[in-house]
Design goal:
Layout: E1 4-8, H1 14-26, E2 31-35, H2 47-50, E3 56-59, H3 64-75, H4 84-90, H5 101-105, H6 109-116, H7 130-136
Parallel strand pairs: 1-2, 1-3
The chain binds iron/sulfur cluster.
Residues 101, 104-105, 125-131, 143-146 line the site of iron/sulfur cluster.
Length: 151
């Protein structure tokens, strides 16, 4: 259960206006915080302190400010409903992406993004660094956590 959830979206949007009362009613025992990226701008130096208590971010990406928020979440390991890399690809904000460990953990993730719009969370890299240990001892590098060949 998430204790503090940040919901970031343009609050005047018709769909969001409908969703908010439903969220308030359905999510009990959770502190639901609302952020409007069109009105509340971030002080980058203050972001870490402002969001230090957040356990989950739900961000409807409609502006660069929303992308900043997702970048921030990734930087400080705050779970998000949608991860920044997937959003950037889906919104055609990038032409090329480089992936290291994620490609080891789930080589099919680009296909999942394009076909299903998200990555299976059970197949993501958990940054355990076991693949780096293989490299250090001169073995073939692979994902010790997700790839049966390396277990
Ligand atoms: S071994 Fe660990 S760090 Fe390396 S790709 Fe797999 S989950 Fe990620």
């Amino acid at each position: 259960m998430f204790k503090n959830v940040l919901f970031s979206a343009k609050m005047e949007h018709d769909v969001i206006k409908t969703v908010i009362p439903i969220l308030k009613k359905k999510i009990k025992g959770t502190n639901l915080m609302f952020h409007d990226p069109t009105k509340d701008f971030f002080d980058l130096e203050d972001m870490r302190r402002s969001f230090s208590e957040v356990d989950l971010m739900i961000v409807k990406v409609g502006s660069e400010c929303s992308l900043d928020l997702l970048h921030f979440a990734k930087l400080y390991n705050i779970p998000t409903l949608h991860d920044i890399d997937t959003v950037l690809i889906c919104k055609n904000k990038v032409d090329i992406c480089g992936f290291g460990r994620m490609a080891l953990a789930n080589p099919n993730f680009p296909k999942q993004i394009f076909q299903e719009g998200l990555i299976d969370k059970k197949q993501v890299c958990i940054t355990c660094s076991k693949c780096s240990e293989f490299m250090k001892i001169g073995q073939n590098v692979g994902c010790a956590t997700r790839d049966l060949q390396y277990k």
